[in-house]
Write the structure tokens for this entry.
Amino acid sequence: MGVSLADNDLDEDDFSETHDINVTPFIDVMLVLLIIFMVAAPLSTVDLPIDLPTSTSTPQKKPDKPTYVSIKPDLSLAIGETFVKRVDLVSALDATPDMARDKYIFLRADRAVPYGELMEVLEFLNKGGYSKVKLVTLEGVPGAPPPPQAAPATPPKP
């Protein structure tokens, strides 16, 4: 409840009430929600550090809960953030809740991973019945030079 101190009626000794909404609590609640979302947003992504290659193709829509299979530079595999052995990849995918063979698997591979290793993981997935695989890249700018390549995980053989 507010009070007006304007000189509307000089004869009245009583202050008149104003009927404005106090927006200060609303602003406080909005700032708290903003902070909560700023803290929670980075936690909703896959947290394995992988140096993805870039692509200038049109980005496609992602499902609500995608299944990520990641290949790190040391050639270790992870489903989401859980590391698995290469031979246990298909059985770990089968044990994943809400996973079906007709759902897409998003494959993330570090740019230092050799092409043969990437193909080997794709072969494991295909033999296990997971044939719907999408490769994950970073969005690049059309016409921009490609970023410098990282050192390969294994030195080239002469």
User: Anything to note?
Assistant: The mean pLDDT is 77. The chain is about 25% helix and 20% strand.
